[in-house]
Amino acid sequence: MDGLSNNKKNPKEDSVPLSSMQRMCSSREYCEHDIRLKLKRFELSSTETNAIILKLKADDFLNEERFALAFVRDKSRLSGWGSRKIAFALKNRRVSEDAINYAFSQLDTDSERNTLMKILETKAKSLKKEEERESRKYKLIRFALSRGFEYDKILEAVNKIIG
């Protein structure tokens, strides 16, 4: 029993929580906040949790900038989210402002504009043609705002679509 408590205080290579987190982090990117939530199921103390987090960072299993970059890329391309919604989600996961800025600096602004146009064109097709022009315009604006795009970019795109 005493051998187990030593494993918890100083994460060894054969530690169950550490190896579990290493396995998870090797298959996809996680942020520190997500790992801390997952470590709660092992009922570790805060010092044990911090030791595991430090070990994961030292071995490059956990990298905040890499996570932010992957998150921004996936949410913009696959989910069609705008930069405001992505930044809010990253802040919710307690990712640092520096990592968020780095990830957005790597994002292509043309791809965000193309994504916005694509989702607005798809949404415009689903709206009733007999609706007033202004009503369709407002619905498209609300839809794009809910996706986290910036208002000035939305207006530009909606005006191109509706005219």
What features would you highlight for this structure?
single chain; 163 residues; mainly alpha; 0% strand; elongated
Overview of the structural elements:
With 163 residues, this protein is mainly alpha-helical. Helix content is 73%, strand content 0%. α5 crosses α7, α8 crosses α10 and α9 packs antiparallel against α10. It is elongated.
Q: SSE string, helix = H, strand = E?
A: HHHHHHHHHH
* Cα gyration radius (Å): 22 Å
Give a short account of the largest sheet.
Answer: none
Q: Helical proportion?
A: over 70%
Average pLDDT level: 90
Total helical elements: 10
- How big a fraction of the residues is strand? under 5%
Q: Pick out the low-confidence regions.
A: 1-9
Number of strands: 0
Structural class: mainly alpha
The end-to-end span amounts to 73 Å
Sum up the overall morphology in one term. elongated
How do the strands and helices of this protein lay out in sequence?
Elements: H1 2-9, H2 16-27, H3 32-39, H4 46-58, H5 64-77, H6 83-92, H7 97-106, H8 109-126, H9 133-146, H10 151-162
Helix pairs in contact: 5-6, 5-7, 8-9, 8-10, 9-10
Concise structural overview:
This protein has 163 residues and is mainly α.
